[in-house]
């Protein structure tokens, strides 16, 4: 007769060994899975930026200019002798006009598969945010109005998949910002005063300091980029605020751009966590204003904190906004009565990607710039209209020269 052997069960030791092996394998595979997911998100972000660049080129083909940053409708009315007057200042909220405060992103919406949204913006009576019928003017109110439906619309083409920011207190976030060059001065008003009147002194100051592809309230075109489209950054990636006092997304306020150099922006950061502010030693924008005022919170708003970057501090550095001006007009920086959220300042690009961020070149190429890019002398204050530095090469090395459009600087390094 055949004898049937009795089957033995797993011992506890064998079971524990198997569990340990599985745990080791999972521990080895999870970082690879996470890295693969981030690589996919980074590629998707690059593709979004390429679509944005294509939209800018198509806009230029249609209108022979770049989309104007800070443009739109104003409240000018005819005064005595045919002079144009404005009944209020541009920082004043309005429901009848947008006071030329819309960002460059508004103009390219129909060129990035956003025709339906553009129809709502360009025509009157767009819907409210809650979906009810609205009584809005064509091109909408000033961009801080959260009731205006189109401004609260999340545009997928303007978002980086690696950025987890979503929803209130922001409305309509953006991860892509216009490059204004290597100086923050006149970065809010351009050649305008607080009543959107163009003056010679401000035009001179703007021409001197605003050396990037985009200039507030001013038309620019590819023909203005004399350094070459492939050598000039026209837009950069920014990360949106998560309410955690991140130095990149919640700018500190009150900086004196005339005396405080870029390397002083980070003063006030937490000693143990340098990427976050020490709340007790610095005043930030969200503390000075409201929770809805932070980096990238409004894609339609042309004010610097929301949709502007400059090539002064290297990517992922701390951000800082200028002090609120006194009652006297300062043509060097910005005009009187401008509140903190509208101020210009040191606003480097940033991202949730590891080690750097994407930038969009004038020829439509998207490049990844590392945090360690050569950024020149960070102890030098940026160019001002009264500075002997006018017309010279950028203080901020390769990084600064990439942000200028017509400074005749030779780009002889890879980045």
Q: What's the SSE blueprint?
A:
Layout: H1 12-63, E1 77-78, E2 84-85, H2 104-107, H3 115-122, E3 176-179, H4 200-209, E4 233-237, E5 252-255, H5 285-288, H6 304-307, E6 308-309, E7 320-322, E8 345-346, E9 356-361, E10 366-370, H7 397-403
Parallel strand pairs: 3-6, 5-7
Antiparallel strand pairs: 1-2, 3-4, 4-9, 7-8, 9-10
Domain DUF1559: 34-375
Organism: Aporhodopirellula aestuarii
Protein name: DUF1559 domain-containing protein
Q: Could you characterize what this model shows?
A:
This protein is of the alpha+beta class and 415 residues long. It has one domain (38-403). 21% of the residues lie in helices and 8% in strands. The longest helix is centred in the N-terminal third of the chain and has 52 residues, at 12-63. The termini are far apart. Mean pLDDT is 83; it is low at 77-86.
Question: Which key features would you list for this structure?
Answer:
7 helices; alpha+beta; three-stranded mixed β-sheet; about 425 residues
Low-confidence stretches: 77-86
- The radius of gyration computed from the alpha-carbon positions, rounded to a whole number of angstroms, is 25 Å
Q: How far apart, in Å, are the first and last alpha carbons? A: 81 Å
Report the principal-axis shape.
globular
Q: How many separate domains make up the residues?
A: 1
The biggest beta sheet is recorded as:
5 strands, mixed
Helix proportion: 10-25%
Protein name: DUF1559 domain-containing protein
Pfam family, one: N_methyl
InterPro entries: DUF1559 (IPR011453), N_methyl_site (IPR012902), Pilin-like (IPR045584), Pre_pil_HX9DG_C (IPR027558)
Organism: Aporhodopirellula aestuarii
